[in-house]
Each structure stands twice: as C-alpha cells, then as structure tokens.
Amino acid sequence: MDGVNNASLPVAGAASFSPTIRPRRIRRTSAIREMVQETRLTSADLIAPLFVKDGNGAPEPVGSMPGVQRLNIEALVAECCELVALGIHGIALFPVTRPELKNPQGSEALNPDCLVLRAVRAIKAAVPQLVIFTDIALDPYTSHGHDGVLTAAGDDVDNDATVAILARMAVLHAQAGTDFVAPSDMMDGRVAALRAALDDAGHPQVGILAYSAKFASAYYGPFREAVGSAAAAGTKLLDKRTYQLNPANRREAIADALLDEAEGADLLMVKPAGPYLDILRELRDASSLPLAAYQVSGEYAQIHAAAERGWLELRKTRDESLLAIRRAGADLILTYFAKAVATDLNRG
Ligand code: PBG
C-alpha cells in the first residue's frame, strides 16, 4: 500500500484480527457507560438567570429567547419557588428598568427602592434558602447602555468614577439580602473596592462572584434586547471593547481573572461559555476557586433557532452544550436552560 509494507499487520475482517486493547469494552452497555462517566450535570450545578420587570402586567416573552420571559415581582417569586422545588439553588437577577428612569449616570442603580432591590427582598421573604446573585454594573440603568458612567469627553467609560458607584450599589444589594454580588462591568479594581465596601458596611458574609473573564462578545445581543439596553442605546452592537476582553486573547483573560482572585473574589466566572472552553479549562488549572461559566443569551438563542428549524435536536444539543461546559472545568453554569434541564433531570 503506497510503498508501505503492511503485509504483517492484521487486517479487519480477517480471522487473525484481534486487538488486545479494546476501548469499546467500557462503552458496551448503558450501565457500564454510566459507571465510567466522568462529568455529570445536576440541578445543583445550575444558576437560572431571571429578568424582572416593574408593575403587575403579564409575563412578556423575549423574542430572541424562546421560553424566557420578563416577570413582575409576584410572578418572579412564584418562579423562584418552582426552581427551588426542582433542586436549583441559585438565581441571577436582572432588572428591566423603565426607559424614563434611565439617565447617563445610571442613578436609578442607587435608588434604595429600585426594582432589583424590591425583587431581592420579596424573594428572600418567600424562599430564603434560594441563593441570589445580583449583577453589579450600570447598563440596566444608563441611557447609553454602557456598564459605567462616561468620561467628561464622553468617549469612554470612566473606570474609577464607575467603581465608586458600583461599591455603593453593592452595599445596597447586600442590605436588601443578596447572597452574592456579581460585578459584570470589567472595571479595574472593582473586586477589591466591592470587598472593602461590603466589609466596611458590615456585610462580610456577602460573597463576590466576579465576571472575571468577560469577553466583548456578539453573543450578548438577545440579552440586550431583554433588558432594553440595546433600545436605550439605539444599537444592539454596543461597543464595550475598552473594558470587556478581546475574544482573541487567552493570556490576558487568565491574568485578569487571577487579579479578581487576588482582590478577594469568592467565585470566578468565564463568559460566554461555549465559545470559550479553552479559557475555562486554563482558568480551572490556574485557580482553586470554584468556577462559574455563563452560557449567554446568544448561545441559548442559537440552539433554539436551529431546533425550531428542525436542524438540531433541542434537548440533546442543550444537554451536550452544558456537559461540555462542565467538562471544561465549570462547577456552576448560568444558563437560561436551567429550569428545563432541572425539570427533565427530575423526570429522569
Ligand atoms: C452587562 C451584562 C451583559 C450580560 C450580563 N450582564 C451584557 C453586556 O455586557 O452587554 C449578558 C448576558 C447574556 O447575554 O445572556 N453587565
């Protein structure tokens, strides 16, 4: 064969062909396959991101995220009870701020009676055991849709002025009863500032889930529709590249994430998840902290869109996408599939 002498090698189909090592032995039955399975997905691994809106109107579907709805506080509390019954321990809360409350400073973020804080109080009163993660960033509140306040020139986000606001915001969230604040802003020094502010205000038990390796991603599009930051800014393609990571950069991502650990983060996060499994893997090896991954809105929308066309099988693709994120090194996954997965896991 092509000048190579294979005459002495056994040939498939021939009676003499009998490899000693047969990897397929451990794949032979479903019992054996389950015994050697290295990675599993359980309800306890999942954090459900939820969108809360003001008023008492009916749930509003998010067009680009089938099955996801903006819920009023009452419906949100009911949803939380259902999630707990399904074995989900955590939620990540995102407020849909009314457009008239948005301004360039995002000042609604510091209103002690703002929507997200009312939601936290209501959930804690009804299901105190549910672990609440609240986002710390100004994008639900700013009229320009950026995660912080702008510089005087208006051409960039002002890092230090933003961090000062975020620290006050974190204290308000702690007072309302959040379990973890989750800075998603990617400002420099925010984790240390949040830790100091929380401790000074008497909230040493409130943790920090740092969005540590958060990339400037096109996969956030549907989320920006859901919270209205795209509409506020007049574009879905908000340019956040002066603070979010360049998708091309692996070393920079790890270095930035390790800074969050050094500044006192309790949990680190990689976001998006599926397209960044290499970052998850590497961070898993570089840090001993628990790792979270955010399967973002665009990853969810993609799977749903293909399934709607009959091009992919929804449940299998969903489960494979999540298992891959666990295999790469994530302990926890924020995913809009959380409830559906937990429901299926409970049914068996
Ligand atoms: C912003 C924030 C974003 C998401 C969570 N927090 C979007 C952004 O950076 O514009 C995206 C989540 C998703 O796409 O599901 N602080």
Can you characterise this structure?
- The model has no long low-confidence stretch (mean pLDDT 94).
- With 348 residues, the protein is an alpha/beta fold.
- It has a single domain, classed as Aldolase class I (TIM Barrel), CATH 3.20.20.
- It has twelve helices and ten strands.
- Helix 2 (73-85) crosses helix 3 (115-126), helix 4 (159-176) packs across helix 5 and helix 9 runs parallel beside helix 11 (314-328).
- The protein binds ligand PBG.
- Ligand PBG binds at residues 135, 137, 139, 147, 184, 220, 223-224, 240, 296-297.
List the helices and strands and how they pair.
Blueprint: H1 30-35, E1 46-53, E2 60-61, E3 69-71, H2 73-85, E4 90-96, H3 115-126, E5 131-136, H4 159-176, E6 180-183, H5 190-200, E7 207-214, H6 221-227, H7 229-233, H8 251-262, E8 267-271, H9 277-286, E9 291-295, H10 297-308, H11 314-328, E10 332-335, H12 338-347
Parallel strand pairs: 1-3, 1-4, 1-10, 4-5, 5-6, 6-7, 7-8, 8-9, 9-10
Antiparallel strand pairs: 2-3
Helix pairs in contact: 2-3, 4-5, 8-9, 9-11
